[in-house]
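Task 17 of the worksheet. Students: predict the tertiary structure of the chain below and write it out as C-alpha cells. Keep your answer in the requested format; marks are given for formatting as well as content.
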Amino acid sequence: MPEHDADYTAPRTEAADRVLTAARELFTERGFEGVSIRDIAGRARVSKANVFHHFGNKANLYEAVLQDSRLTFDELLDGLRDDTIPVTERLERFAREHLDTMLQEPAAVNLFLRQMLSNRGDPRRERAEETIGEGMQELLRIVDRSLVSGRRDGTTALSVSLMLLGSTFVYFQLRDVLPRIGGQSTDCSPDAYCSALIDLLRPGLEAHIAAGQ
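Model answer:
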C-alpha cells in the first residue's frame, strides 16, 4: 500500500475542500481500505481525475484529512496563547470552541476514534496517534506555561489538558442522551456544560497559579 509523500501538504481550493469532506465521511464510515477514489469522487461530485490532480493518491488524501483536523485544532490553540486574558477564561473559551468544533464536524472525531480502535500496527492508527500526540504536546506546553509561571509542572498541565479534552469528548459521545440523563430542569447546552466544567476546575487552577507566583 503506498504511503503519503513525506513532504505532502494538502491543497486549499473549493473542489479540494469538497473532496476532503467526502473522504473524511467515507473513511469514517468504511475505513481506509473500504473506500476507493471512485467512491470519494462520486460523493464529492467531481471526477476521479480531479481527485488525483489535487491529492495524487488515496494515502495523500488520508494524510490531508488528518492535516485538516490538526490545522483546526491549532487554530483553537491560538486562543490559549493570549496571556492578556486570565487563564481560566482562556480555558473555558477553548473548551467551548473545541466542543463546538466536534459537534459541527462529527465525522472528523469519529474518524480518529475509528482509527484508535483499529488493530495495533495498522499504519493508519499509527498516523492518527501521531497527529493526536502532536496536538496534545502543544496543548500541554501552552497550559504548562499558563499555569506555573516558570515553574515546570508537567503532571498538572497533563491533568488539566486531559480533563478538558476528556470532558468535551464525553459530552460529544453522550450528546443525544444527555437530556434524558439530566432531566428537564438541567441545562445540557454546550455553553452551560463548559461553564460548569471550568467552575469546578477554577479553585484548584487559581490556587496553583498563586502558588507559582
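Marker's comment: The chain has a mean pLDDT of 87. The two ends are 54 Å apart (CA to CA).
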